[in-house]
């Protein structure tokens, strides 16, 4: 079996290439790629629990907690125990975190342009990757 014939390698290489393309765009925002993903969740729906962010990103809390601590230290979000459930931590954007969204709006278009896919190819790629993820996750 040749390396180039392996789907796993194609996924790995594509992931590395895309993530590398994000790097300069996110460096300008002061974010790493995983931090950007956390911010996308918060920009979509502010005031969420750590558990909800973890579920959205498919990350364990042990991986997510250091990301959240760094984003909090950067002044982009705040974490506080929920009054109705002290076991749960609510995450909220700060003013700086909300303002960063405007600066980040150009990122998806820049990445889309770099990928060079038509709208149909983009949709098909996302659908196929979601299917692979679902199939592998349930197996």
What does this structure look like?
Helix content is 68%, strand content 9%. It has 139 residues and is mainly alpha-helical. It has a single domain, classed as Winged helix-like DNA-binding domain superfamily/Winged helix DNA-binding domain (Arc Repressor Mutant, subunit A, Orthogonal Bundle). It has a three-stranded antiparallel β-sheet. Strand 2 and strand 3 (89-93) form a beta hairpin. Helix 1 packs across helix 6. The mean pLDDT is 93. Residues 4-134 form the HTH marR-type domain. This is MarR family transcriptional regulator. One of its GO terms (biological process) is response to stress. It is found in: Cytoplasm.
Task: Sum this structure up briefly.
The chain has 139 residues and is mostly helical.
The main sheet comes to:
3 strands, antiparallel
- The total count of strands amounts to 3
Beta content comes to 5-15%
CATH topology: Arc Repressor Mutant, subunit A
The CATH level-2 architecture is identified as Orthogonal Bundle
Strand order of the largest sheet: 1-3-2
- End-to-end C-alpha gap: 23 Å
Q: What is the count of DSSP helices, taking H or I runs of 4+ residues?
A: 7
SSE sequence, one letter per element: HHEHHEEHHH
Shape category: globular
CATH superfamily: Winged helix-like DNA-binding domain superfamily/Winged helix DNA-binding domain
CATH first level: Mainly Alpha
**Structural class computed from helices and strand pairing:** mainly alpha
């Amino acid at each position: 079996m040749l390396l180039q014939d392996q789907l796993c390698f194609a996924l790995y290489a594509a992931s590395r290439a895309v993530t590398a393309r994000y790097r300069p765009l996110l460096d300008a925002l002061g974010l790493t790629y995983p931090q950007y993903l956390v911010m996308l969740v918060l920009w979509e729906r502010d005031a969420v629990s750590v558990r909800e962010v973890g579920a959205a990103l498919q990350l364990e809390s042990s991986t997510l907690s250091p990301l959240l601590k760094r984003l909090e230290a950067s002044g982009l979000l705040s974490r506080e125990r929920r009054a109705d459930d002290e076991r749960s931590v609510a995450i909220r954007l700060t003013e700086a975190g909300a303002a960063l969204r405007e600066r980040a709006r150009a990122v998806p278009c820049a990445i889309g342009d770099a990928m060079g896919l038509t709208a149909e190819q983009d949709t098909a790629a996302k659908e196929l990757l979601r299917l692979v993820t679902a199939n592998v996750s349930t197996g």
